[in-house]
Amino acid sequence: MEQFLGCFARLHIYEENARFVLISVLLLLYLCLGAFIFHILERDAEIKERREFKDDSERLRILVCNRSTSCLERLEELLALHAQGTVSGVGSDRDRFDLAGSFFFSGTVISTIGFGTATPRTILGRAATIGYGVVGCTCCVLFFNLFLERLITAFSYLLRYFHEKKVRRRLMLASNNKPITLLVNNEDYAESASSCEAVDNWRPSVYKVFFCLLTLSALLISTAAFVYSCVEDWPYIDALYFCFISFATIGFGDYVSNQKDVSVNKDVYRFLNFLLLTLGACCFYCLFNVSSIVVRQLLNWMIKKMDIKIDDDFLCFKKPKRYMGLGLRPPKGWEMCSERSSIDLQADGGLLSLKEFLMNNHSSVVMLQKHLIKSALKNARDKEEDEQKISASRVGPMGILSQAFGEELQ
Asked: What pTM was estimated for this model as a whole?
């Protein structure tokens, strides 16, 4: 059955560009949805708090200064000084840039959390932050990527253990002469086989790894929220909110841990706070990257549904048909230029058999061999060039996940 070209192929919008355009549109719609949701949830509370703040400020001005102009001026100066001290951090008795505080500040810089509770105030400090951040953020991204690789490897070994255990159990049932169906790869995988080679080439499903990461992240954030709720005396929902903002490296700064005196040992709590923030940021980095693979699979499904295959001259600005296929990109090895086939057609349009072809034109054997050699060399060069190309699926987290999950990400 003849297959037609889709709209994306005719418009030369291939997989990468189609995914980029689609995710851009979806993100824009998601931003609009977020604007609507937070406007509904927060706008009335903001207006109410601003009105209460103005009323309380006016009431206190009257009580303190009794409408005295000079007193009001000094009060405004005091309030401005207090606000400046709060922003700079010097209004608190707690040191911001002692050795422990500087270590905490350095961690917020390289992890891109940036709570904002401690900021450099000197010109040299700000210049040093730029240089320190460039090197530190680069190394921290590398650390996150290596953590992602190790964690995915650990989950792969765990899932492989259960998979091989299931295979061995089915082999034992087979040895008892019971009729069974041995599936090396179940519905989550592309192929099914019963060979040992297939077991060796087995790779975990991205959805199972995603479920494992989601479970681990949920356990970590719920445990950390319980710890912060007890130590910092926060409501549990506020502690959960702080954990997500910190682990996702958003870092609003409205809630910051270890900023007041606590009942537990200070040094122990500082170490525990550092450990929880580090593990949380690493786990959520892994979760977001694997989640992006799931979203990418959804985008691929949407693109296939949107890429209508038609053969109409009017629709999709149809270009001359140069290849047949279901994908958005021409298949590898397809020559875009039109070449005459070395196998001719009969006068009535029927294809000559190979025996008749060789008998009628012996010289075409040499041409066929040359064509095969050229095609093989071209395929080898194309493969080598593809391996040397830099793409989103070969660098960074996507490259790590592509190596772990194989063709499932294609």
From this structure: 0.72
